[in-house]
Design a protein that fits this description.
Elements: H1 11-14, E1 26-37, E2 40-52, E3 57-61, H2 68-75, E4 83-88, E5 91-92, H3 98-108, E6 109-113, H4 124-129, H5 139-152, H6 168-180, E7 186-190, H7 198-213, E8 217-222, H8 225-228, E9 233-238, E10 241-247
Helix pairs in contact: 5-6, 6-7
Amino acid sequence: MPSADSDGVPRSHLHPPGAPATPAVIRAVALERTYSAGDVLVHALRGVSFTVERGEYVAIMGASGSGKSTLMNILGCLDQPTRGRYELLGRDVSRLPDDALAEVRNRTIGFVFQSFNLLPRTSAVENVELPLLYGDLPARAQRERALAALAQVGLAGREASTPAQLSGGQQQRVAIARALVNDPELILADEPTGNLDSRTSEDILALVGDFHRRGMTIVLVTHEADVARHAERIVVMRDGEIVEDRRTRAPRLAEPRPA
């Protein structure tokens, strides 16, 4: 019988025989998340296990209450599982203290949210610079990287605009530039088109797809099938469990990044 870690998860499930030498970006094993709502114990996740390799584009689907947002919070190191194990790039981050989790989030993960989460009185370039403030780059280098990120998302010339001066689609492009500016290993997009019209949504999804084709690993949460179809793999959740995991096309796996 295989030995188990402190969570009771068999170690053979964490690194199965024949697994790639390069660690997966995401390896979730038997994740559970419970919390109290008054006198009721809510089981938001019930033994969720799955892996995302480098360069994959995965959509996580499910209705409200399916557990997809809870799972996204754990994958983004915004929350921790009650039980189970989460490895990010081969490192167990399941029980890290808050300051270590904050460092992992800033250096490894780029976030794109439905509501954009831009500072309203701050210019586009200053919004994009925000993740760089926690690093050791000099101010000039920070500005250069932020300008380059804005150019990548098609916003060259709008660097000085505040969110109020930009359309919804342009605001989401600023948010994507901010997610990319630290050159993260993983992009987590939570309903990134939820506040956009259909035409603008397609533009944003085309931009996300372009970054995937360049080798970025992307996990996108959505309740819309039209959005999920842009991914190469769809994971469906219901009642805190994965009920379906299917590929829509062959994966385009990225080469390992240089150390």
